[in-house]
Amino acid sequence: MALERSEVEKIAHLARLGLDEADIPRTTETLNNILGLIDQMQAVDTDGIEPLAHPLEATQRLRPDEVTETDHREAYQAVAPAVENGLYLVPKVIE
User: For the residues of 32-80, what is the DSSP string, one character each?
Assistant: First the structure.
């Protein structure tokens, strides 16, 4: 699928891009190259190929799920203007 100059001008208008007259041929060629690459990728037979979550099938190293900080809730809430049952109270902003 090749784009014509008029289609590129319309796409630029819809995208609110200001293209100079000198840039339109280069932009048309670039977009046609991108569409050509997409056509090549869609032509590849992928039947029987399982999708990958990551191209390298790498697994992420995990750290132990351990508490590393002490609880400072009481100290933080001691200076809060309004607290109830361990929760910060804030003014209602939506009626």
Answer: HHHHHHHHHHHHS--TTPPP-SSTT------------S---HHHHHHTS
